[in-house]
Amino acid sequence: MTPAPRTLELFYDVLSPYSWLGFEVLCRYKKLWNINLQLRPSLIAAIMKDSGNQPPALLPRKAQYLQNDIRLLGQHIQVPIQLPKDFFSVILEKGSLSAMRFLTAVNLEHPKMLEKVSRELWMRVWSRAAEKAGMSTEQAQGLLEKISTPKVKNELRDTTNAACKYGAFGLPVTVAHLDGQTHMLFGSDRMELLAHLLGEKWMGPVPPAINAKI
Amino acid sequence: MTPAPRTLELFYDVLSPYSWLGFEVLCRYKKLWNINLQLRPSLIAAIMKDSGSLSAMRFLTAVNLEHPKMLEKVSRELWMRVWSRDEDISEPKSILAAAEKAGMSTEQAQGLLEKISTPKVKNELRDTTNAACKYGAFGLPVTVAHLDGQTHMLFGSDRMELLAHLLGEKWMGPVPPAINAKI
Question: Catalytic positions (chain A) (predicted)?
Answer without folding.
Answer: 16
